[in-house]
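Class prep. Write one:
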Amino acid sequence: QKHKPWVISINSRIVLITTGILLFGGTLLFYIFEYNNTLAEHNAFGKIVTAFFGATTPRTAGFNTVDTAAMNFYTIMLVFFLMWVGASPASTGGGIKTSTFAISVLNIFSIARGKNRIEIYRREISDDSVRRSYATIALSAMILGLSIIFIRYFDGAIDLKAIAFESFSALGTVGLSL
């Protein structure tokens, strides 16, 4: 059997697959959640394009084509998640990064299957990478929690949902606001 060289590295595969899942899943959920709300004024194609844009931009640039304050609660929770995950490594986008999220999800599946290591595409993810991913997640949770607590303490007049949205947006360097 001949050896076929890898054209795309394991890191690139993880990033591309995770990005694809986030784009497809985010677009589908945005479309479902906002169909009769902020997407109501669009035709079928416009709804799909706007949902795709609405699911893409929280991970990168922070542009908006719909009024974020008018979005349903479920959509805002989706945007929280997308801003938290953020962009891919080596990009200028913020968030915990797609590979960090992917490694943590792969670790959960690996533990659920009773395995003590993460294997993907016949490659093993190092324990050091797993520890770094969980440290990044824990640090981001602490920063988010503390920022929400401090902003609420120093300005109690602001709605808690708006404070959380601003905190997630700041962590992800997104720029969206309610």
Observations:
- The chain has a mean pLDDT of 91.
- The first strand starts at residue 118 and ends at 120.
- The radius of gyration is 18 Å.
